[in-house]
Amino acid sequence: MPAQDPRSGRLQAEQVRDMFDGIAGVYDVLNTAMTAGLHRRWRERAADLAGVGAGARVLDVATGTGDLALELARRVGPGGEVVGSDFAEAMLARARGKAASAVCVEARMSFEWGDALELPYETDAFDAATVGFGARNFSDLGRGLAEMARVVRPGGRVVVLEITTPTRFPLALFFGLWFDRLVPGFGRLAGMLTGSSRGGVADAYSYLPSSVKRFPGPAELAARMAAAGLGEIRYVITAGGIIAIHAGTVRGEANR
Fold first, then answer.
1. Are residues 242 and 163 in contact, defined by beta-carbon separation less than 8 angstroms?
2. Cβ count near 1 (within 10 Å)
3. Which of 90, 164, 178, 235 is most buried as measured by Cβ atoms within 10 A of its Cβ?
4. How many CB atoms lie within 10 A of CB 218?
């Protein structure tokens, strides 16, 4: 199957993996620049909604450089465990480096290769599962959500943190300008500074705005989570309408 244009917002799994391997070195810097550092607060909110405490075992899917996994590790304490899963090895390497140098993190942490559509974990293996800014990269969203629900015990939470498209003026206008013009510009500049050729940083940040636009809105995502086996679904819209954090509870065994 031929490679797809990043500007379409749809990429094959191999393209997504190669893209994130290619931008691992600049991912954290650009993420902080584009969000003015607010991404840390959004991950804190996602960890709150996961509802985990001391001794819990948590999975962070599409963990990237591990920021959400580290936030979860602070919640579960020395008796808990956090597993970060991703299929981009360069991102995992960054996450392992962060975990090794993290202070005030006593939980057991591991970062493992894994395909979000076929998670290599047993059913009911975790108390919660999260995904931060990774669900829109699933080539099959329903399957990815169902896999997250499968590996979480009944009563545990599945949390999805994603960018969403605001609909109210004037933020919708600003968002369009920011994502259609400035974000790709960041990518082109970073590509020039790092010597990245086409297919690298610049393409990644052309893909980002398009992938957000094609991703389901908050109400539709809640419906997709319900179809994947989750109940008691609620979501929070924050950052003026550009961030949505969804949480659902895994249904009891008889209803799965």
1. yes
2. 5
3. 164
4. 17
